Amino acid sequence: LGIASKPVYLGNLSVTDLARKAFKFAGEEASYPVPKTPNRFALHAGSWTMSGASGTDTLKAAVPDYGLQLGLRTTEPAVLEGNKCGYISLASLGSSYYYSWTSLATTGTIVDHGVTLKVTGKSWMDHQWGPMNLASGGGWDWFSTQLSNGQQYMLFFIRNSKGQIVETAGTRVAHGGKDITYLTAASTRERVTGSWTSPATHIKYGSGWQITVPGGQLTLTPDLRDQEVDLVNTQ
After folding, report:
1. How far apart are the C-alpha atoms of 223 and 130, rounded to whole Å?
2. Residue 146 zone, left/alpha/beta (φ > 0; ψ -120 to 50; rest)
3. Do residues 139 and 39 lie in contact, with contact meaning Cβ atoms separated by under 8 Å?
4. How far apart are CA 23 and CA 1, in angstroms?
């Protein structure tokens, strides 16, 4: 009998501290059999844990100087991305099944340099899986936006190895998740308004965007330019 290899679970955590203008990230991994927990999940990578069921999740993780322990509860229905089918094309990167929880009420604690702070806020969770080929030479710009008027946008711009946009996916969620509009490539455009070059890897990134959506535009400006996650060179 053949023995199936155990899956590898990769986790990464990033913290942007605007008061200190600091950015920290780290990665953890683990390999173990798929947990048999019907109707729920319970995963770990190193000391980091993630568990939940039916739109209620618990997260616990830490990087140097920062830690978090959060409870998340969905306040709106899950969104099937990809024109109601929950499946999207990623051009040369392959394809994936895809759904989102776009509005998760969040409470818990964050440890900031040894000081434990109670926090509340709103989170977003994406779940993607499928036949993806991340070594094809292409890339993507992905945005999750939560607006003050209660609307949320998921926007995905897939690029080929020459940097050209070859696939676009987008979803607008409104009225408490009851109004979902799937955006077409013809009605959704991205314009990069700035750039930033990493002093560590010398990679040039977009740093500022103007997104055209039906009925208007979204202007997205980073609060901190240096937020590069370079897990390959920190293993």
Report:
1. 33
2. beta
3. no
4. 48
Look at residues 15, 102, 33, 25 and name the one whose alpha carbon lies nearest to residue 42.
33
The angle formed by the CA atoms of residues 64, 65 and 68, to the nearest 5 degrees, is 90
Backbone dihedral angles phi then psi of residue 51, each to the nearest 5 degrees: -150, 160
Which are the contacts of 30, defined by CB distance < 8 A and separation ≥ 6? 8, 9, 44, 45, 46
DSSP 8-class letter at 92: G
Mean pLDDT of the chain: 92
How many other C-beta atoms lie within 10 A of the C-beta of residue 87?
Answer: 15
Residue 137 — pLDDT band, cuts 50, 70, 90?
Answer: confident
Tens of pLDDT, residues 139-175? 899 999 999 999 999 999 999 988 899 999 999 999 9
Task: Report yes or no: 222 and 205 within 8 Å, Cβ to Cβ.
Answer: no
CB-based contact 34:7 (threshold 8 Å):
yes
Cβ 161 vs Cβ 184: under 8 Å: no
68: which 2 tokens? 């978090």
Cα dihedral sign, 86-91-95-101: negative
DSSP-derived 3-state class of residue 232: helix
What distance in Å separates the CA atoms of residue 232 and residue 196, rounded to the nearest whole number? Answer: 20
Query: What is the spatial distance between Cα 2 and Cα 227, in angstroms, rounded to a whole number?
Result: 43
Total-model pTM: 0.89
